[in-house]
């Protein structure tokens, strides 16, 4: 039987008096990829920020691995197994690839040395760049590094915001293939925010469509791909 890893219910959140998210419900089962789709400004990034504790919800519940996440400090959220890769990637430009990876491992108690090698095995382009500074990397390498750094915390769920932003289609396809591999071989669950709907639905098990801060569809990825009316109305293709 599938295990419910993340359950969001009735979530209301925003930055001021007027909420951005209106009673959002969402579920992620262990070892699955759920795509969060919708137009610019729909509230997708705000949803990820609220789940990871960067934005405080006004109402609703966020349950991760059976425990309530509301009010839990961000670093404790990571220790519980939930890592967030924000839009824009957020690597440290002045540090080397290896130092950036080790930063991701600081959240764990154990020595992280072996895990750095595991990340290089997964992300071959980073292995040849281990002594390069963040600012010397290409856009694709930066995205790999941001994901690799998050994986150093050994998450069960990765919140990934717009990994394809600014990347060539070939690099985007490589990142989607990597997510598929992580899901299939390590059981990682991913909540994937994407503007690139086709790419996202090519790897996702489920898709949730958000419009003006409300969930307007939540279905199997295959059903969303096949629903022409929904695609035209909310997904622009
Ligand atoms: P995008 O793909 O453009 O990032 P999104 O669906 O991720 O879109 P959000 O970034 O969550 O949308 O933004 C939702 C709304 O919240 C927008 O109206 C945006 O202007 C507003 N917003 C986002 N971040 C902040 C902030 N830090 N302070 C105030 N308002 C914000």
Characterization of this structure:
This protein has helices at residues 44-51, 74-79, 97-105, 113-122, 124-127, 139-151, 169-186, 197-203, 221-226, 228-235, and strands at residues 4-14, 19-29, 33-37, 59-64, 67-68, 82-85, 157-161, 189-193, 206-211, 214-220. With 237 residues, it is an alpha/beta fold. Strand 7 (157-161), helix 7 and strand 8 form a beta-alpha-beta unit. The radius of gyration is 17 Å and the shape is globular.
List the helices and strands and how they pair.
Blueprint: E1 4-14, E2 19-29, E3 33-37, H1 44-51, E4 59-64, E5 67-68, H2 74-79, E6 82-85, H3 97-105, H4 113-122, H5 124-127, H6 139-151, E7 157-161, H7 169-186, E8 189-193, H8 197-203, E9 206-211, E10 214-220, H9 221-226, H10 228-235
Parallel strand pairs: 3-8, 3-9, 6-7, 7-8
Antiparallel strand pairs: 1-2, 1-4, 4-5, 9-10
Helix pairs in contact: 3-4, 3-6, 7-8
Adenosine-5'-triphosphate is lined by residues 15, 20, 38, 40-46.
Summed up:
With 237 residues, the protein is α/β, with parallel strands linked by helices. It has helices spanning 44-51, 74-79, 97-105, 113-122, 124-127, 139-151, 169-186, 197-203, 221-226, 228-235, and strands at residues 4-14, 19-29, 33-37, 59-64, 67-68, 82-85, 157-161, 189-193, 206-211, 214-220.
Keywords:
237 residues; alpha/beta; Rossmann fold; 2 domains; 6-stranded mixed beta sheet; 4-stranded antiparallel beta sheet; 10 helices; 10 strands; 38% helix; globular; binds adenosine-5'-triphosphate
